[in-house]
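cron nightly-structures :: item 1 of 1
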Amino acid sequence: MRVDDTGWDAREGVDNRSDAELLAAVADADRGALHELFVRHEPWLAVRLSRRCADPAIVDTAVQDTFLAVWRKPSGWRGDGEVAAWLWGIAVRSMLHQLRPRANVVERLRNLRGSPMASAEEEVLARVEHSDVGLAFSRLSPELQAVVQATVLDGLTTREAAALLGIPSGTVKSRMSRARTELREGLL
């Protein structure tokens, strides 16, 4: 395998640099590094976002905004944690930004909403049959599961979870409190 100084393997057509190395290259205005990050992370970001929003235009815009934010400020990743988790946080917040103040978008989402699709996290938790936490989580009502997913699994603030779920912030807090109590009881 012949790899040059940038991590590019000419024979394989693969960039072998880590995500962190690619971000450092993006900071030096390397468009190829940004492209490689996009190729690596766009597919799963689009899938996860589409499970939270039925409007493909909003999902596409959120993904584009994510990589635009990376290009503009690659130093936003502080070096702790996974680059993928950092990208996910940007993508979710971008999607929420699009959903917030516009009533016509909310109305369109209500009209597009069909049967709720299980998120990737819900599918993983459902497969963890032998886990006490997974079993306790599956016993929660769908409303409580949605709040736990938004706040714990997706790392959203109470306000962001409320906007995503279309409920007041106080309801998010009370459902999270009830979910903690039920999970605690389920694990005893």
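cron nightly-structures :: done
The chain has a mean pLDDT of 81.
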